[in-house]
């Protein structure tokens, strides 16, 4: 994903940062991994750890409700509803975003740009 931004949207290198939000709960991301990723790219990368369970008003009650649900074959992990809430609401109030940007573009880890971008999305 990040390489596709460099390849197809090179005018963004120094104009816009790429902020990578990640939840370290259940994820083994270390400083060495972050530094390696930064060394492979020319993009201005900002890594920001978020704790998804903080967005809950009553964590123990919410987790209790989720745990009582009958599991299905297509059930997503417990973090999925919280990342959805983060992207629908919380991200716009995050200190890195609020009052710094008028618009953002979201790309997931499985998103790729497929052709050159000639027009600046943010101008």
Whole-number tally of structural domains:
2
In total, the number of strands is 2
Structural class: alpha+beta
Radius of gyration: 17 Å
Order of secondary-structure elements: HEHEHH
Task: Kindly report how far apart the N and C termini lie.
Answer: 22 Å
Largest sheet: 2 strands, parallel
pLDDT below 50 for ≥5 consecutive residues: which ranges? none
Oligomer: single chain
Beta-strand content estimate:
5-15%
* Mean residue pLDDT: 79
Helix proportion range: 25-40%
Our count of helices gives 4
What sort of overall outline do the alpha carbons produce when their principal axes are compared? elongated
Strand order of the largest sheet: 1-2
Quick overview:
By secondary structure, this protein is α+β, with helices and mostly antiparallel strands.
Structure write-up:
The chain is an alpha+beta fold and 123 residues long. It folds into 2 domains: 1-50 and 104-123, no CATH class; 53-93, no CATH class. The chain is built from 4 helices and 2 strands, in the order αβαβαα. It has helices spanning 2-8, 31-40, 59-68, 79-88; strands at residues 17-22, 44-49. A two-stranded parallel sheet has the order 1-2. It is elongated and about 50 Å long. It starts with a helix and ends in a 35-residue tail after the last helix. 3% of the residues are buried.
Please outline the helices and strands.
Layout: H1 2-8, E1 17-22, H2 31-40, E2 44-49, H3 59-68, H4 79-88
Parallel strand pairs: 1-2
List keywords for this structure.
single chain; 123 residues; alpha+beta; 30% helix; elongated
């Amino acid at each position: 994903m990040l390489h596709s931004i460099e390849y197809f949207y090179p005018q963004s290198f120094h104009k816009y940062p790429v902020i990578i939000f990640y939840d370290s709960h259940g994820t083994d991301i270390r400083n060495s991994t972050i530094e390696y990723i930064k060394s492979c790219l020319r993009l201005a990368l900002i890594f920001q750890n978020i704790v998804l369970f903080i967005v809950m008003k009553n964590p123990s009650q919410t987790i209790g409700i989720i745990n009582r649900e009958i599991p299905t074959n297509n059930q997503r992990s417990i973090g999925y509803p919280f990342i959805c809430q983060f992207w629908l609401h919380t991200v716009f109030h995050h200190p890195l975003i609020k009052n710094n940007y008028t618009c953002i573009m979201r790309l997931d880890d499985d998103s790729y740009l497929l052709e050159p971008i000639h027009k600046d999305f943010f101008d």
